[in-house]
Automatic annotation (TrEMBL):
Its EC number is 3.6.5.4. This is Signal recognition particle protein. It is found in: Cytoplasm. It comes from Cellulomonas pakistanensis. Its main location: cytoplasm. Keywords: Cytoplasm, GTP-binding, Hydrolase, Nucleotide-binding, Ribonucleoprotein, RNA-binding, Signal recognition particle. The lineage of its organism: Bacteria, Bacillati, Actinomycetota, Actinomycetes, Micrococcales. Involved in targeting and insertion of nascent membrane proteins into the cytoplasmic membrane. Binds to the hydrophobic signal sequence of the ribosome-nascent chain (RNC) as it emerges from the ribosomes. The SRP-RNC complex is then targeted to the cytoplasmic membrane where it interacts with the SRP receptor FtsY. Composed of three domains: the N-terminal N domain, which is responsible for interactions with the ribosome, the central G domain, which binds GTP, and the C-terminal M domain, which binds the RNA and the signal sequence of the RNC. The chain holds residues 1 to 306 of 534 of the full protein.
Amino acid sequence: MFATLSDRLTSTFKNLRSKGRLSEADIDATVREIRRALLDADVAVPVVRQFTGAVRERALSAEVSGALNPAQQVVKIVNDELVAILGGQNRPLNLAKNPPSVILLAGLQGAGKTTLAGKLALHLKSQGHTPLLVAADLQRPNAVTQLQVVGERAGVPVFAPHPGNQGSELDVVSGADPVAVAREGLATAHARQHDVLIVDTAGRLGVDAELMQQAADIRDAVSPDEILFVIDAMIGQDAVATATAFQEGVGFTGVVLSKLDGDARGGAALSVASVTGRPILFASTGEKLTDFEVFHPDRMASRILD
Ligand code: GDP
C-alpha cells in the first residue's frame, strides 16, 4: 500500500546519511521532501501540516546523541510522529460487561462493511465468542444475500429479513425496516445467547442524509458498544470529508481501514485517526475472510519506514 511513500521517505533519509551534523537548512530541506511525499500519498493537508511541524521542531531541538547519527535521529522522529498520527497504541475492541455486545458498522457503499462483518465475526469466533450477524443493509438488493454468504463462510449465523428464511432457524421480520431488523436481531442475540451482535448497515456512494439518519436510528435502537466506521484506504483526499460527515451524522468510536492491500497512495490510512480523533482498530487487507488484522500503529509505521 505504501510502496511509493516508503521509497520517497527512504531516499530522503539516504541523503542525510553522509551528514555529520544537520544544519537548519538540512532539516528544512528534509521536512520539505517529507511534506511532498505525504501530499503525493494523498494525506490530508492539515495532517501533513501538523506532522511536518512536529518533525521540524523535534529535529531542530534534537540532542546530539551518542547512539544515533543525525539521519537515524530523523528516522526515529518521523517514526514516532507516524505512530502518533496513526493513533499511538492499539485500542482493543470495547466489549460490554453484560453481553451481548453490539457492534454497528457504518460507511459508504463499497467501503467493505459487509466483508468486514464476516471478517470480524470470524475473528471473534476464533477468540471463543458466539457472534450473530444482522443484515440491516436493506438498501442494496444483494446486501442481505451477500451477508448470508459471508456468514456461511465464517460459520456464523445471520439474522435477516429474508423470505427464504421462513420456517428456518432464523426469524423473519415483517416489512423491510432496518431499524426493526436491528432491534429484532438484538432480541434474538439475547434469546439465543450470542455474546456479540454485529450489525451491517446501508451505505450510499456519497454521503446521504437519509441513510445517515437511518444509521443514527439503528444506533438509537440498539445502543452499540462500538460504532466502527469502515473506510476504503484508497479514498484519497475525500477521506476527511467523508469521515467528518459520518462523525457528525452517526458518530463513531473507532475506524476500520479496508483495502489496505491496494496499491494506491493510502492517504486515508494516514489521515483518518488524526482528523477524527478516533483510533483505528482493524485493517482489512484482501477479499478473503482471513485478510484481516488487528491494527497496530507502531507496526504500520515500521512497515512504511522499512
Ligand atoms: P459494503 O458495500 O461497504 O458492504 O462493501 P463490501 O463488503 O460489499 O465490499 C465492496 C467490494 O470490496 C467487494 O467486492 C469486496 O470483495 C471488496 N473488498 C472488501 N474489503 C476488501 C479488502 O480489504 N481488500 C480488497 N482488495 N477488496 C475488498
